Amino acid sequence: MHRSGAVMSLNVFKFCTALRSLGSVMILLVLGVICLTYYALVITNFGPALFDGGLNSVVALFVLFLFHCLLVMLLWSYFSCVLTDPGGVPVNWRPEMDEERGETDPLTGSDFSVSAVALQPSGVLSDQPNQRIRYCRKCNQLKPPRCHHCSVCGRCILKMDHHCVWIVNCVGALNYKYFLLFLLYTFSETTLVTLSLSSHFLSFFSDEEIPGTPGVLATSFLAFVLNLAFALSVLGFLIMHISLVAGNTTTIEAYEKKTTPKWRYDLGRRRNFEQHFKLHTALTEILLAFVGVELVHQVFGTDKKYWFIPAYSEDDLRRIPALQGLQYPSKPDLDAQEL
Questions:
Q1: For this structure, is 164 an active site residue?
Q2: Strand, helix or coil at 270?
Q3: How far apart are CA 51 and CA 57, in angstroms?
Q4: Which member of 150, 153, 164, 170 is catalytic?
Q5: Which residues span the membrane (predicted)?
Q6: Which among 319, 145, 165 has a CA at the least distance from the CA of 248?
């Protein structure tokens, strides 16, 4: 029994080490696909078409303008995901005590230690068990609500969603918005490229004479296939994460709450999305109706100038606790049931 446990720990350690090593390779892969796409779309196809005159030049100008706008936002969002700390537990963090209830968030699953500790109003730990305080045995520290330990990063991450090898980073409270925008702009960009190069792809299966050198045709064909594959896969992730935002949950919490009939952080679709965005356009109202305004605020903030860029206003960061990853609104009725 002990031997198998040791072997399992060793295997997990090796797996986490492999993921860390794979990170830089994945970044190079992403940049490689972008460079290939840029060469196929801009250099060999629509760039030269700018000088054809007539409708071809107009179409080429439109495609190139839209492509470069999306490319800038994609790269901005991507490197924001890579370079932004997803959120770690502050040193000597202690949960804020509820004056009326005198308790904090409940322990869940394997997040708590065997001998749980209690936090007195004075802020001093005692030996009395309190099953509402979450504790990480690996980091040897208390855990804020919705915080989980990442074995790859080797630390607890605030509102951890998952560890993503594509960005060599965890997706957590402080970069989740950037990750959603990365998915959105990646899907938009790859869809645009797929549609723009679809005629070249279809030419391979027709009897028409195909213009261009074999190298140009092969590059266009490969760029089409890669972008189509990314568009379809990213669409699945985008739909999944929109549904997660609608339920005010993360990927990890979605598995955890399968055993929980009611999710305490689910404030309703409109209020849920308000925690991430606060949109007032027609498109925004449709989105808010599906997800919820309050959830939008929790991810995107309230300043609509910042909704679709990987950044927050200073006012939102100061006023919205959820954007700092330490406090989240929950249903009062469910909190009362937990007493």
A1: yes
A2: helix
A3: 6
A4: 164
A5: 21-41, 53-76, 217-239
A6: 145
pLDDT at 192: 96
Question: C-alpha angle with apex 51: 46 to 52, nearest 5 degrees?
Answer: 85
Q: Which of 105, 245, 125, 261 is nearest to 179 (CA)?
A: 245
Query: Other C-beta atoms within 10 Å of 39: how many?
Result: 16
* Whether 238 contacts 184, CB under 8 Å: yes
130-133, long-range: CB < 8 A, 24+ apart = 130/103, 131/106, 131/107, 132/103, 132/104, 132/105, 132/106, 132/107, 132/338, 133/95, 133/104, 133/105, 133/107
Q: Using N-to-C axis directions, what is the helix angle for 2-38 and 55-83, rounded to 10°?
A: 150
Q: pLDDT tens digit string along 200-223?
A: 777 766 666 666 677 788 888 899
Residue appearing with tokens 């249903």: 331
Please state, as a whole number, how many other Cβ atoms lie within 10 Å of the Cβ of residue 268.
Answer: 17
In which residue are the tokens 């869809």 written? 191
Beta bridge mates, 162: 171
Q: Which residues of 314-324 are buried (b: 16+ CB within 10 A; e: fewer)?
A: eebeeebebbe
Residue 165 and residue 159 in contact, taking contact as beta carbons nearer than 8 Å: no
Q: Which of 304, 253, 236 is nearest to 276 (CA)?
A: 304
Spatial contact of 170 and 164, defined as CB atoms under 8 Å apart: yes
Q: How many CA atoms lie within 13 A of 178 on its CB side?
A: 25
Considering Cα of 97, then 100, then 102, then 108, what sign does the dihedral take?
Answer: negative
Average pLDDT over residues 64-88: 95
pTM score of the predicted model: 0.77
Over the stretch 160-176, which tens digit does the pLDDT of each residue have?
A: 999 998 898 999 988 99
